[in-house]
Specification:
The protein is α+β, with helices and mostly antiparallel strands. Helices cover 52% and strands 13% of the residues. The N and C termini lie far apart (51 Å).
Length: 128
């Protein structure tokens, strides 16, 4: 994408490939968002994970899991989408960032938490 950031507070999300980038910022008192050609089509947006978590909330009460496992499922299914968003935005928060920093690993943690929650919920639903 190149060029100057739209403001000092511009948030940039980027992967290691320069053709996958999104810039969100303020320019002349209006919100500006620019995306590269295939950003949305290559990743599962956190909103989809959030809907999965909400559907899981409805299903978890139908399982014979213990209260601690039900709490584990609830927490993991709702924390995962938040961690994905945090990982993308905090890993390139600096306007001078050319590559993601170590906070990009929050995305992998979110994927692990989502897997734990979905597998635990699936086992509980099979037991019901």
């Amino acid at each position: 994408m190149g060029g100057k950031p739209v403001s000092n507070l511009a948030l940039t999300t980027a992967s290691r490939r320069p053709n996958r980038a999104a810039v969100l910022g303020v320019w002349n008192r209006s919100l500006v968002m620019t995306t590269a050609e295939h950003v949305a089509s290559r990743a599962c947006p956190p909103g989809v994970w959030l809907v999965l978590g909400l559907v899981g909330m409805l299903s978890v009460d139908q399982t014979p899991l213990s209260d601690s496992l039900k709490s584990l499922v609830r927490v993991t299914l709702l924390v995962a989408p938040i961690l994905v968003s945090l990982g993308f935005f905090l890993s390139v928060l600096s306007p001078k960032a050319e590559r993601p920093n170590g906070l990009i690993n929050l995305i992998y943690l979110a994927a692990l938490l989502l897997a734990v929650g979905v597998v635990t919920l699936g086992i509980g639903l099979f037991q019901a």
